[in-house]
Write a structure and sequence with these properties.
The chain is an alpha+beta fold. 34% of the residues lie in helices and 17% in strands. The chain has a five-stranded mixed sheet, sandwiched between helices. It is globular and about 50 Å long.
Length: 158
């Protein structure tokens, strides 16, 4: 099978990888670059567990070919926290017990950060709408919504 050379910026660092032309961005992140924070839930773009930012756009990495990321800027869950400590969203997820098994958590966090970067003062309805593409089978959604709303308030205050 043909292979393609891909150069992309991931979380501020440049990476080069030789990948199969049909290999997804999710597979390259996890299998080639050992960035296992991004999870595969469904493989069909229905659950949001594999959410990443691609050129400042929220995408399901299971639906993006790695070749499409050539020359692009990718942000994953690994790039969310500062070098020391946690991002306020991560801290609020812990404080509100907004996670259980952890499969969906990285996708929710990336999606929530994308929302708060775009709209630092969302309503609860806006948060629920924005996160509608992310599914959780363990915790339900109320704790997740409360964590995002609390993080938004903290980020606005800082």
């Amino acid at each position: 099978m043909a292979r393609q050379h891909v150069t992309t910026e991931i979380n501020g660092d440049t990476y080069e990888v030789l990948c199969e032309v049909d290999q997804t961005l999710l597979d390259v992140l996890r299998d080639e670059l050992n960035m296992t924070g991004t999870k595969e839930g469904c493989g069909t773009g229905d659950c949001g567990a594999c959410s990443v930012m691609l050129n400042d756009r929220l995408v399901c990495s299971c639906l993006v070919l790695a070749a499409e990321a050539d020359g692009a800027k990718v942000e994953t869950i690994e790039g969310m926290a500062p070098h020391e400590g946690l991002h306020p969203l991560q801290q609020k997820f812990l404080e509100h017990a907004a996670l259980q098994c952890g499969i969906c958590t990285p996708g929710f966090l990336v999606a929530a950060k994308a929302l708060l970067d775009k709209n630092p003062n969302p309503t609860e309805t806006e948060v629920r709408y924005w996160l509608a593409g992310n599914l959780c089978r363990c915790t339900g959604y109320d704790k997740i919504i409360r964590a995002v709303m609390d993080a938004a308030e903290e980020l606005r205050a800082s």
